[in-house]
Write the structure tokens for this entry.
Amino acid sequence: MEFLTTFVNGLSLGGIYAMIALGYTMVYGIAKMLNFAHGDIIMVGGYTISLFLGANPIVAILASMIFCMLLGVVVEKVAYKPLRGASPLAVLITAIGVSYLLQSIAQMLFGSAPKFIVIADLGILKIGELAIGYSTIITLACSVVVMVALSLFVKFSKTGRAMVAVSEDKGAAQLMGINVNRIIMITFAIGSALAALASVFFLLKAPTMSPTFGSLPGIKAFTAAVIGGIGSIPGAMIGGLLLGVIECFAQAVPAISPYTDAIEFSILIILLLVKPSGLLGKMRREKV
């Protein structure tokens, strides 16, 4: 029973990582850039929830998602759009700068001390010897729904097909009448909304938030995206679930629990040595 509980908790945590990883992988697949400020959107979402939590938890969650969507669009227009066509190093440095800017603003507004944000106490479901928190079940269920919905959106909607076209060949997509700037903006908005949603599930697991909270989950979600294959939506899902399960089982073993992060990043290094494109990624030849 302990094995099953750990496995379900791992899938739940992996679902959160997958949600964040989807933002990384979509932005990279379409805009060909790594938005390292993406993890800090989780932190912004958490603090936004705390501001609206007095009204209603549902209102707070919706307000968080809307604000983070708008923030993602603003960041893309102000920080990244002017660098379209610039060197990857310039974009990377800008993304790191945006990350530190968001952390600094949060520290000025809310202080550096951890802030307790309790959305709801959902209790524990007991089935015989099996005990699983309702928050874990809700997180896992919502993660599956989000992943399926996003996959269907990309596959069947007009905007989703335009995203695929832009990711394959930006120039050809523009010649076909697709507004590339609009597609990139929508991608940032969707990724930021998923990051805000991830902050909800993180708070259900551990109701604390700090200005640097999003850094480590963001890096781990990026790791999940790379493991699955950066640019691949199914790969981000698989990578996130795999990383979550590995983390929970590593933490369940006292002898190796202090080295959980090292184990996760070691797996990333090994995978990159064996299969640089990730589990579902494809090797692409860059056009000169």
About this structure: The chain has one domain: 2-213.
